[in-house]
Design goal:
32% of the residues lie in helices and 37% in strands. It is of the alpha+beta class. The chain has a domain of 29 residues.
Length: 79
């Protein structure tokens, strides 16, 4: 399970046997979210038990690190 970022009490990761499209899972503080790449940005597709203030921070982290997330995805799955 490759971990990309740990920040604000959340772990941003993907599973080692993933599927397209590129996406990132976020877990922490008893909650979960998933963001999928739509070709131009990551879009929230699932959220369970995450406060709005935490979700705002998570969105910022994902927006600021979209290139890193995509690069990590491509590097890992092109093995």
């Amino acid at each position: 399970m490759p971990t990309i970022i740990r920040l604000f009490g959340f772990v941003f990761f993907f599973y080692s046997h993933e599927h397209e499209p590129p996406h990132i899972h976020v877990e922490g503080k008893g909650g979960y979210a998933k963001y999928e790449w739509n070709g131009t940005s990551f879009v929230l597709t699932e959220v369970v038990n995450i406060k709005k203030s935490d979700l705002k921070n998570i969105n910022g982290v994902i927006d600021d690190n979209a290139d890193l997330i995509l690069q990590s995805w491509n590097n890992y799955f092109s093995k």
